[in-house]
Amino acid sequence: MASSNVDATDDRIPRISSSIRVIPDFPKPGIMFQDITTLLLDPAAFKDTIDLFVERYKDKKIDVVAGIEARGFIFGPPIALAIGAKFVPMRKPKKLPGEVISEEYSLEYGTDKIEMHVGAVQPGERAVIVDDLIATGGTLTAAIRLLERVGVDVVECACVIELPELKGRDRLGDKSLFVLVSSA
């Protein structure tokens, strides 16, 4: 993996990149699965990952860190705590109790939805959306639309890994994307 969006001289990037295991043909033939569980097993690499995001967002007046199910739930809460923001889980359908608001998005074959609690965010709040990886950008785009629909200012999307060959960044429109490592 090569660096993306982060100072190429930052010595934390190689540690993060080398801690991500690539599993060929998972979950199906032709897929090169980017496994972040090995990053989580390396306390130094995990800390570096969180620290890089915190350094980026600590002075940007972020009110909300919205984490996309499921791996956004791993990275989002420690970032939110460190910068003094609330964490809002964005979940798959029928996973949140109570009243929810949802946004549908397209998959290769069919559609899916992302949901959050009604009242979890307020108009005018500033948000960062966090996930482990951006591939086609469909989930991030739905998360942006959902938050903007209720008046939130989405400042940026943040991912540990980008698969640039899938051009997910292009689907985000004018939204900035901060990425630590790009697949080569």
From TrEMBL:
Catalytic activity, as annotated: AMP + diphosphate = 5-phospho-alpha-D-ribose 1-diphosphate + adenine
Record-linked Pfam families: Pribosyltran
Stored InterPro entries: Ade_phspho_trans, Adenine_PRTase, PRTase-like, PRTase_dom
Localization in the cell: Cytoplasm
Taxonomy, superkingdom: Eukaryota
One biological process term in Gene Ontology: purine ribonucleoside salvage
Gene3D superfamilies: 3.40.50.2020
Phosphoribosyltransferase domain residues: 41-178
Key words, A-Z: Cytoplasm, Glycosyltransferase, Purine salvage, Transferase
Gene Ontology cellular component terms for the protein in this record: cytoplasm
GO MF annotation list: adenine phosphoribosyltransferase activity
EC number: 2.4.2.7
UniProt-listed CDD domains: PRTases_typeI
Pathway: Purine metabolism; AMP biosynthesis via salvage pathway; AMP from adenine: step 1/1
Family affiliation: Belongs to the purine/pyrimidine phosphoribosyltransferase family.
NCBIfam families associated with the record: apt, PRK02304.1-3, PRK02304.1-5
Subunit structure: Homodimer.
Record-given protein name: adenine phosphoribosyltransferase
